[in-house]
Design brief:
10 helices, globular, about 260 residues, two-stranded antiparallel ribbon
Length: about 260
């Protein structure tokens, strides 16, 4: 918590809105997507999905393959509690939804399905977007599958496997990759290096909780400095990584 608090104060001092962004690509992304306040019909699907999660008192036994939970003390957890503490918040779910449309995402990959709060946001952005989501816990994966079927999200392919093994079996590049899994430095850097074979010039990778701990922030700094990375956007909660060869290396800190 101390690291997060200090990091947030630093973020507030360094962050800018669209007026401090001197890159046409990033300026348009921030003004036309990040700050887009227009209501979308797809938001209703997200809200209905979230409502169903909040009302779901069923319990499942969760197998933590990552760094473990800071909230839950037992593997037996109510689906509603998982959604509350581990699910993507509505504001950011809407951003994921907008990104699918704004960036014309045809293929997306998610590491860490959980009960599907972020998955539904990605899948509802464009029904023709092919979304692959990976979840290590079998019970959680099965729960998410049933929910996706209930909401008729036919463009979602759920893989139940550990990330490292699943990534070895993926070979085609993705347009957008959302990483919300093992929040440790070693694992995050391992995922990043494994994902490099799955990116192209216009791919964006989004890393969750880049200031969760000191080691997660260290991982974020190493990712920023990688030779293939040209543009990054730090929104405190998420870190956006781009590989646009036509653009000079720049790092932005943007309030959202």
């Amino acid at each position: 918590m101390i690291h997060q608090s200090k990091s947030y104060l630093k973020f507030l001092r360094k962050s800018k809105n669209q007026h401090g962004v001197h890159s046409p690509f990033v300026y348009d992304l921030v003004t036309k997507c990040f700050y887009d306040r227009q209501q979308k019909t797809s938001y209703e699907i997200i809200k209905l999905f979230r409502k169903s999660i909040k009302k779901n008192r069923s319990k499942i036994t969760v197998t933590d393959l990552g760094a473990g939970s800071r909230v839950f003390k037992t593997p037996v957890r109510a689906i509603s509690k998982i959604g509350k503490h581990a699910g993507t918040k509505l504001k950011r779910a809407k951003l994921l939804n907008r990104l699918i449309t704004y960036l014309n995402i045809e293929t997306a990959l998610e590491l860490g399905t959980s009960v599907g709060m972020a998955t539904v946001a990605l899948a509802a952005g464009n029904p023709s977007t092919k979304l692959t989501t990976i979840e290590g816990c079998k019970e959680t994966s099965n729960t998410a599958k049933k929910l996706f079927e209930k909401f008729q999200l036919e463009n979602v392919n759920v893989i139940n496997d550990n990330f490292e093994k699943a990534l070895k079996n993926l070979h085609s590049p993705f347009d957008l990759i959302f990483v919300d899994g093992n929040h440790s430095k070693e694992a995050t850097l391992s995922y990043f290096n494994a994902l490099l074979k799955l990116v192209h010039n216009d791919t964006v990778i989004i890393f969750d909780d880049i200031y969760l701990s000191r080691e997660m922030t260290e991982a974020w700094e190493e990712i920023k400095s990688h030779q293939k990375v040209t543009v990054t956007i730090d929104t405190f909660k998420w870190g956006f990584v781009f590989f646009r060869e036509e653009q000079a290396k720049q790092h932005f800190v943007v309030r959202f």
